[in-house]
Amino acid sequence: MIKITSAEFVKSAFDRSHWTTDGRPEIAFLGRSNVGKSSLINSLLLRKGLARTSNTPGRTQSINFFLINEKFYFTDLPGYGYAKVSKSMRSDWGKMAEDYLGDREELALCVQLIDVRHAPTAHDKQLYEWLVHNQKPFIVVATKSDKLSANELARSLKEIRKIFTVPKVIAYSSQTARGRDEVWAELLSAAENR
């Protein structure tokens, strides 16, 4: 299990010129606006407010870089699929995310988050297909697993695996830390092997 010796917010990047340049591996967190990305990041790092959580989906409008143990970055990408922002803002986010995901040599792993309580959306499927098509290393993490009964969770995970045709979907709960060790094993393996 990883010991978190340091976790710090480094910068928000609104375009390519703001990205970090030190060559450390990066792990990108991707998902819908209200999927619980910030909560998952805080939970992984055992920090309360490092990644800002909000009751208003669509708040993250930049790529946020967090340096972990001085060794690698977590990058929190803007959420997608939130209806209450303008079309131009939505397409800006898509462009920024695609630039980053498409060209970033430091990218060691993409973590696609799915809200386990709902079937994957068209946006979720689009991202998954893009990751597969572009041969990006990624894992699928199903958030909010504490909100379902054991039977509902099993059913939902089976459904996600069917749609995404991945061997494994990690059930995660920011409340109970379920899945934390399993996710960390994937993140560390990716960061060390980049």
Tell me the layout of helices and strands.
Elements: E1 7-13, E2 26-31, H1 37-45, E3 63-68, E4 72-76, H2 87-103, E5 107-115, H3 122-133, E6 138-143, H4 150-164, E7 169-171, H5 180-193
Parallel strand pairs: 2-4, 2-5, 5-6, 6-7
Antiparallel strand pairs: 1-3, 3-4
**Integer-rounded radius of gyration:** 16 Å
Per CATH, the superfamily is P-loop containing nucleotide triphosphate hydrolases
- Per DSSP E runs of 2 or more residues, the count of β-strands stands at 7
Fraction in helix? 25-40%
String of helices and strands: EEHEEHEHEHEH
Which secondary-structure class do the elements indicate?
A: alpha/beta
Number of helices: 5
CATH class: Alpha Beta
Count of distinct structural domains: 1
N-end to C-end Cα span: 19 Å
**Poorly predicted runs of 5 or more residues:** 82-86
Question: Average pLDDT across residues?
Answer: 87
Largest sheet: 7 strands, mixed
Strand order of the largest sheet: 1-3-4-2-5-6-7
- Taken from the alpha-carbon principal axes, the silhouette is globular
Strand content: 15-25%
